[in-house]
């Protein structure tokens, strides 16, 4: 099996830009990939929740992966989300994306149909066994309806090519228990919640898989690397300075506010696919005011 996905710092959960007709804007997508490489983002995730991937066809998934591999290969690690609530579909995506040349795969726990402990384990472990690249588990009970138990996560951590977890419970007690259970393993915990990246790093986390980084990759890199390099107070100061902005990114369902913010900043990423819709004017005004306060616009 391949080695671990040893990335520390800031990974971006990349948005997907659209044309006015709702088709994927591949020229803008390439521009965004180059933007993150120029800003020293430590790794890039495509097809995550923030990308609006539930609205994509299988061919759209693959076209995004192919472009990202072409742009990123050899310059920045690339992760693609192969997750599904159908294990067979995860197998198919994992094999196809691995063959295309991604560096790692994100695998979410089953949603809607959920699973018992045995099913949770095999849904991810069997996919890991089917490919020769690292797997990152995605734990986000707010979207899946189930939290992966610590003992299941610990068993997954024992597998050679399960590199870590994108941890998005928002529960620091859970994070502490997971960190303790896996502290002697080669297992990363990356924050999936921008508002608690530094608290998670204080418990041994390796950084973040970030929504915020779509707008300000330089800031998320600076914050996480400050912590990793021992400048903890500066990292804390940045976490607190940008806390209101980060919270505003979730004033409506992600990725609506982050894409609105990027458009306000002149990045031209387009709109959304249904069922996502534009923000209310009230919430847009709140987001704009914070961005103006911080000098972003």
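Q: What amino acid sequence fits the structure above?
A:
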């Amino acid at each position: 099996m391949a080695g671990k996905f040893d990335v520390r710092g800031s990974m971006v959960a990349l948005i997907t830009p659209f044309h006015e007709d709702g088709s994927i804007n591949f020229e803008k997508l390439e521009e965004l990939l180059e933007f993150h490489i120029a800003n020293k983002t430590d790794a890039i995730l495509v097809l995550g929740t923030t990308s609006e991937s539930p609205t994509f066809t299988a061919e759209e998934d693959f076209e995004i992966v192919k472009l990202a591999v072409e742009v990123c290969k050899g310059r920045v690690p690339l992760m693609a989300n192969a997750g599904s609530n159908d294990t067979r579909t995860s197998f198919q995506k994992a094999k196809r994306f691995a063959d295309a040349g991604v560096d790692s795969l994100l695998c979410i726990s089953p949603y809607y149909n959920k699973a018992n402990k045995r099913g949770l384990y095999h849904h991810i472990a069997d996919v890991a066994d089917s490919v020769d690249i690292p797997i990152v588990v995605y734990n986000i009970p707010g979207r899946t309806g189930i939290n992966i138990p610590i003992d299941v996560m610990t068993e997954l951590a024992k597998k050679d090519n399960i590199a870590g977890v994108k941890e998005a419970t928002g529960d620091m007690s859970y994070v502490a228990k997971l960190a303790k259970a896996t502290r002697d393993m080669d297992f990363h915990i990356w924050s999936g919640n921008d508002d608690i990246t530094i608290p998670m790093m204080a418990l041994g986390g390796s950084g973040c898989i970030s929504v915020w980084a779509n707008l300000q990759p330089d800031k998320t890199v600076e914050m996480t690397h400050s912590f990793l390099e021992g400048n903890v107070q500066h990292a804390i100061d940045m976490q607190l300075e940008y806390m209101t902005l980060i919270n505003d990114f979730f004033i409506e369902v992600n990725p609506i506010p982050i894409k609105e913010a990027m458009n306000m900043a002149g990045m031209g990423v387009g709109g959304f696919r249904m069922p996502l819709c534009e923000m209310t004017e009230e919430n847009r005004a709140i987001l704009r005011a914070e961005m103006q306060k911080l000098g972003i616009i």
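Q: And what stands out in the fold?
A: The first strand starts at residue 9 and ends at 13.
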